[in-house]
Amino acid sequence: MELEFKHAVLDNGLTVIGEINRTVESMAAGFFVRTGSRDETANVAGVSHFLEHMMFKGTPRRTALEVNRDFDRMGAQNNAFTSEENTIYFGAVLKEFQTPLLDLLADLLRPSLRQEDFDVEKHVILDEIARYQDQPQHRLYDKLMAEHFASHPLGHSIVGTAESITALTRQDMLEYFDRRYSPGNITAVVVGNLDWPAALGKIQESCSHWKPYEVSRDLSPAPAAGTARTIVDANLAHQNVGIMSPAPSAQGDDRYAAHLAATILGHPTGSRLFYALIDPAIADEAQMTYDLLDGAGAFITFLACAPRRAAEAVRITREEFRRFMQDGATEAELQAAKNKIASGATLHGELPMGRLTAVGFDWLYRREYLPLAKEIDNYFAVTAEGVLEVARRYDLTAMTVLGLGPAEAI
Fold first, then answer.
1. pLDDT digits 0-9 by tens, 156-178
2. Does residue 224 register a pLDDT over 80?
3. Run of H or E residues at 376
4. Contact 197, 168 (CB under 8 A)
5. Does a structural domain hold residue 216?
6. 187 in the same domain as 94
7. Domain limits at 389?
8. Do residues 58 and 114 touch, judged by C-beta distance below 8 A?
9. Is residue 222 situated within a structural domain?
10. pTM for this one?
């Protein structure tokens, strides 16, 4: 597959990167804003996510109806999402719609933020927060991040709280937008069958007038709490358990070994936790993932089981982690994990929409472009010793454990 990487920086600091792939018939584009809940203060908790919603409520050039209509006319697959660290606005279209897609996405990034829209959308956000309270795994993740990272900004809730959203004003949002949506804090990413000169020209036309200003982020070390407690909720039938351990950051060279360790231990099928907990029917769910963050990282394990078996499930999980740190992975386990990751990355990356976030995040976190083939090669280069070393260095058993369910202790 012939791929070509492109990179440019506008005079106002906005970065534009592209991966050209002439073998496909579509393209995808996204504006990656380096801002999320970790960049908020307590008085505006949840504003990044709220602002993401508001970006679709109209601009000086388009009403909210026209925004939706224009996406629809292109047949676009589009959306947006907010995390602890980034807010992404994206779409994928047939290659002939490249210019109108970029025009629309760039327009979204300079919204009207009208008071009447703000008042209506506030109720939508409050309803969303209430719905999340009915979803045990989302609720558990939110509380686990807060427990593990304690007072560090990574412990901030993405959606905020009912209290913080109720108190938030439009002026608060405007000031946050003015602090975080500087062109130097935004990367425009285009991938697929591109006309690069036309894409760059359209982005320059649409974005070069955006005024730059300095944007910073608190990158202080993220301590791991290592606590264990339970949130008792008698309304839940299952016991849900979240476990978090320190892991390499998004900038760490050992991130490949960390991903392999998480796959060996907690992939939904054929992993250590699968055979130790799900196969013998001790737990209904046992999965481990690796979350790589800006200057930090975490191994995250979720368990779901009958309340009477929660303590046993946590004990077995800890034993599996300890055994892994002692003996490491077998060559068969390591090869299977490499194949799973390579298969998932390849299937995901065969479409421009799938490559968009990979190309974007590689640039945001490390200022590098990594072709898919090179990324897969990096995984296959990891040795069993490298996986063992990362498990020991970050100590999988240095666990923050949080239970949510009817059991009073785990």
1. 999 999 999 999 999 999 999 99
2. no
3. helix 372-380
4. no
5. no
6. yes
7. 228-405
8. yes
9. no
10. 0.96
